[in-house]
Amino acid sequence: MTSLLPYRANVGAVLFNAAGLVLVARRADLPNAEGAPGGWQLPQGGIDDNEDPAIAVFRELEEEVGTARAEILAEHPRWLTYDLPPDLVGKALGGKYRGQRQKWFALRFTGTDSDIRLDLDPHPEFDAWRWAPLAALPDMAVAFKRVIYQDLAQEFARFAG
Q1: Which part of the chain is the Nudix hydrolase domain (predicted)?
Q2: Sorting pLDDT into bands at 50, 70 and 90, what band is 36?
């Protein structure tokens, strides 16, 4: 049954600051997950119909962290996919998808920390953010996204501090 559902088209941002650290944000629906895997993640979101992924990544940054002050450093050469765990299929992602098919970008943050605003959306996805080492990403990810975060840590290592 799960395999009959499609993947949702999605973009993700690995946003590097000048020190080579990446922006991670804590999910607002997991406020007590300070040290738990999955509580912190990279900004990501859906691609609208006929939207260019390179445009979508800036839109998603603005929607999720309040700023699009960035420039693209690199685009991951492949689309990466993950499947939701069975207990989330039919519930997460509006119940319409088995997982996500993602295009990831490495971006250089061109703003200042004060440009990052989680309070602009009346229903924010995130309630906190911080800069973290790229190599720490896999340990921060929920189990079903860990392989993607490992891939990102390898693919974009050249931009890390």
Answers
A1: 6-154
A2: low
Residue carrying structure tokens 């699009």: 68
Interatomic CA distance for residues 128 and 140, integer angstroms = 14
For 2-159, CATH number out of 3.90.79.10, 3.40.50.10490, 3.30.1130.10, 3.40.50.300 equals: 3.90.79.10
Question: How many CB atoms are located within 10 Å of the residue 36 CB?
Answer: 11
What's the distance, CA 110 to chain centroid?
Answer: 18
Q: Cα torsion for 23, 159, 84, 41, to the nearest 10°?
A: -10
pTM over 0.70: yes
User: Which secondary structure element, helix H or strand E, spans residue 140, and what is its range?
Assistant: helix 137-140
Measured distance CA(75)–CA(57) in Å, rounded: 11
Q: What is the pLDDT of residues 39-62, one digit of tens each?
A: 789 999 999 999 999 999 999 999
